[in-house]
Amino acid sequence: DMGGHDTYMHKEISEQPDAVDRVLxxxxxxxxxxxxxxxxxxxxREARGIRRVKILGCGTxxxxxxxxxxxxxxxxxxPADAEPASEFRYxxxxxxPDTLYIAVSQSGETYDVLAAVQELKRKGARVLGVVNVVGxxxxxxxxxxxxxxxxxxxxxxxxxxxxxxxxxxxLLAVHLGRIRDLSVTDGKRIIEGLRRLPAQIEEILKGEEDxxxxxxxxxxxxxxxxxxxxRGYPVALEASLKxxxxxxxHAEAYPASELKHGPLALIEPAMxxxxxxxxxxxxxxxxxxxxxxxxxxxxxxxxxHREQEKADHTIIVPKNEDELDPILMGIxxxxxxxxxxxxxxxxxxxxRNLAKSVTVE
Length: 361
Ligand code: F6R
Fold this sequence. Notes:
The chain has helices at 8-14, 16-24, 44-49, 59-76, 85-90, 111-122, 137-141, 160-179, 184-206, 208-218, 233-247, 283-294, 325-343; strands at residues 28-29, 34-35, 52-57, 80-84, 99-105, 126-131, 144-147, 223-228, 250-255, 273-277, 300-304, 313-316. It is an alpha/beta fold.
């Protein structure tokens, strides 16, 4: 049942305010400015003993894991990174007892992730799951975890589950942070930011008509560049994947700082750039990248907290705490991919060559 929407993708994008509300519900503890996660199976002493966090996933879940790693490293001050599960599995990684491994999967059935979990468990590692489908293979195999509560995701490409997974990581980061060195004040600041998300997502969704018009202007592109810096980079990766999957327009994502080391050679009017430009400590650096692109006659669509004069168009999103901005900046880009694909007449819910869960190697 599409509930009045033309596609499941549109329905699922629109459901995000409610979905985010669900992942937060019952988990916030205002008294200690922290977060309770019932299924973690990790006591405070164990949480303090973690020396590293390694996040494993595929596709969109890997991108959510990249943001998750920066949230955990930033708030809990534990070195954290994310890696595609299959790459991890085949490079014979050092498995360390003081590392917390986290497997991320919407379906909970992705073979490469499941196999990585099984290999880790066999070697005695502790593995948590950040999973949407309750009781799925990865959820059962993990020692504990966080359910993402996005509700059923029918469209092959992931949207609401990406957003909810990142929110689940923010909850985990506050939880681990408050056991370690995150102050009460910062815990409270992030919790208040999380509570603002549903209404802010609602506000972004209200801008859909404008995004649709922009999509019509960029749908003629042969290829698109997506750039972001530090926490904006995984947003660029995910937006680029979404566009590729459903519109079949070639896209690539680069850290903005890497442009000058090669890809600037590609910039010309036929290759527009989507730039993630949050109002944070890197704003001036990001603006410099826009200038470099403009100097080469590149078209620029910025996603920002205020109008960017170097950009041809700016999609303005509401500001949250710096740490949580990536969650909001991803949402207009789901709509951009959606309307680009629609303008090109693509079968949005069933893109060619893709399956909802990839249960083969
Ligand atoms: C992208 C997409 C895929 C999945 C990937 C992992 O829109 O849907 O890239 O994210 O196949 O799937 P899960 O999260 O079910 O493990």
